């Protein structure tokens, strides 16, 4: 689909963006950082920032860069080796960016986060305050996963997931995912074709996506598409484009037809955005009966989840934790922030006239 002029205008009004850079955009086969690409990306970000756009950079590449610095000893476990590579590579990575930003008289700051930081509302708010403070000072935040401590189940799927969470937390206008391909290709036919725009109702991306990943990349194209689709439904436009193309950020910000675009849908309230992104981070679950399910999903009025409609409580959670809402046949209906602990929820379940277990303002119902 061709962009129309309104869409082009929309590109020019991005005031706050997240730019996510994949490992293979900035590192070569041996893990060495590519100075020309880093120079081009930092110039692009510096230009946007000077024009008043708030930019948060989420960059992968620590593990990749570590490979060019150190060879972990053969006696190490895979996890230890990865920790060594990430811890050594991260300094190299962030210094490479910081040195380039300095050439544009810009300061950069490093923020390393883990999945836990998005589980805990206080950590979440602390991260948001820090990023806002840096942006206010016109400092470029460079975010990465804290790979030295985030191992196995504590890890994000990949930095596409992490940058999606940041985009939603910061309520940006656009999330730009830079990879080593020009965008999402339709590979179903004889010739692969770049898909310019994704309809919001699209769901089944696996029909296009091959389960291959770029070398050293972690997530692959399917995660990118699923995250992009989710963000667009939350009111954030997503672009998947080639980070090795010179001037790519200016092209996207200038409304040029590059890469694949997931146009933004109606925006949602910030708190609901946080909750919508909590899949996999929940600490427990409530099972609800049919009556409660139709009250929550009908969309006719704003309904909180009351204990009377709850038939089961799973896991151990405290007030303020995110919990999953499931139907009696196990279908996940949505997520919400618990107004009480699991003990209180168990004591109240099935009873009339009790306070909500999840208030409407903290409730996110998954689209059908
Ligand atoms: N339909 C598709 N269109 C584009 N790329 C695809 C598709 N299916 C699979 N891919 C693969 O996805 C890779 C990008 O994902 P990933 O390795 O996670 O990159 P990054 O390191 O930038 O996060 C591409 O290098 C490509 O090989
Ligand atoms: N935090 C890791 C990034 C892992 C990752 O998600 O990589 P990618 O799929 O290239 O974005 C690193 O800095 O090496």
UniProtKB/TrEMBL annotation:
Pathway the protein acts in: Amino-acid biosynthesis; L-proline biosynthesis; L-glutamate 5-semialdehyde from L-glutamate: step 1/2
Tagged with keyword Transferase: yes
GO molecular function term, any single one: glutamate 5-kinase activity
GO process terms (BP): L-proline biosynthetic process
A Gene Ontology cellular-component term: cytosol
Catalytic reaction equation(s): L-glutamate + ATP = L-glutamyl 5-phosphate + ADP
Residues that hold ATP according to the record: 20
EC number: 2.7.2.11
Coiled-coil parts of chain: none
Compartments it resides in: Cytoplasm
Broad class of where this protein is predominantly found: cytoplasm
Keyword Repeat annotated: no
UniProt domain PUA: residue ranges: 284-358
Residues annotated as binding substrate: 60, 147, 159
Protein family according to the UniProt entry: Belongs to the glutamate 5-kinase family.
Function of the protein: Catalyzes the transfer of a phosphate group to glutamate to form L-glutamate 5-phosphate.
NCBIfam families assigned: proB (TIGR01027)
This protein's name: Glutamate 5-kinase
Natural source organism: Chlorobium luteolum (strain DSM 273 / BCRC 81028 / 2530) (Pelodictyon luteolum)
